Amino acid sequence: MGKSLGDAFPEAARTYEEANDALGFDLRALCWAGPAAELERTANAQPAILATSIAAHRAFMAHGATAGPRILAGHSLGEFTALVAGGAIEFADALRLVRKRGELMQAADTSGGMAAVLGLDADAVATAIDGTGIVVANDNAPGQVVVTGPLAAMPAATEKLRAAGAKRVIPLKVSGAFHSPAMRAVAPQLAEAIRATPFNGLKYPVIANVDAQLHENSSDFVTLLEKQVHSPVQWVASVRRAAGEGATTFVEFGAGNVLTGLVKRILPHARTANVSDPETLKEALDLVR
Radius of gyration over alpha carbons of the chain, in Å? Predict the structure, then answer.
């Protein structure tokens, strides 16, 4: 992930060098060459995704973007990327913070899991799983909701979801019940790490996962980032909030185009692009010029 960007753009290459220096190990080699099993460990995946997203953003801004964004938002971990892009957190500080976040989440109770529910909206999912111990983790798009909770409770919740009309319930390859009450256990240590991280003023407003509201003060995120780890990601509401603020074009930065697809499902008429390699970077620049 990110190798083609690093090979093509010096800004992206320097981003990985900064990441290595900040973390004290070779994150660049892990991103570019794996092994996949090591890269996918939560403590490694979080700084790797952040670094790759910032590498993509820096390359985009340096090679033809004529203006900054109107609004920033990120999905779960991506909220940290948004705050770096918005100037609220220095890149090195954010890397260390998400590394700590990943370590805490990885060490949390592993008896939980997550599943993607296709074919039902969030309200229908919440109604179907009420009382099972499973809760909504991510309201990703109309007809795509992620649920989370104890693995032992998943079979009963799955049956209720299918009875309610879910087309598919797909277990996700994760190490815990992220964005669920189970993650409250990591909140005190995460809050301590967040409070120890310097925050600067925001250059652009950021829509928060927790409340789907527009925030112009970076100090708001001292509380919001801690709450986010054990609260649902309100992605549908966040994208609609951006549209309500006048956003018509959405550009995703990082290894993949999952959020681009979600935005198109939420706002079918929105203009979208992702930046994950030199080719997609050029396409995104053509879209915003």
Answer: 18
CA torsion through residues 128, 77, 170, 259, sign: positive
Angle between helices 78-85 and 91-107 (to 10 degrees): 170
**Active-site annotation, residues:** 76, 179
In angstroms, what CA-CA distances link 131 with 112, 127, 149, 154?
A: 16, 9, 12, 12
Q: In the chain, what are the domains?
A: 3-108+181-288 (3.40.366.10), 112-171 (3.30.70.250)
The answer to whether the CB of 115 falls within 8 A of the CB of 168 is no
Residue-level pLDDT at 289: 81
- Residue 175 reports pLDDT greater than 90: no
For 70-112, write each residue's pLDDT tens digit. Answer: 999 999 999 999 999 999 999 999 999 999 999 999 888 678 9
What is the pLDDT, as a whole number, of residue 64? 80
Alpha-carbon distance of 235 to 115, in angstroms, equals 16
- Residue 88 has a CB neighbour count (10 Å cut-off) of 27
**Which residue, among 3, 98, 107, has the nearest Cα to 44 in the 3D structure?**
98
Tokens 């927790």 appear where? 210
Which residues in the chain belong to E strands, given as ranges? 72-73, 112-118, 135-141, 144-150, 168-171, 206-207, 214-215, 249-253, 271-275
Q: Is the pLDDT of residue 283 over 90?
A: yes
Residues 23-41 have a mean pLDDT of 95
Chain centre to alpha carbon of residue 154? 24
3-state secondary structure of 12: helix
N-to-C CA span, the chain: 26
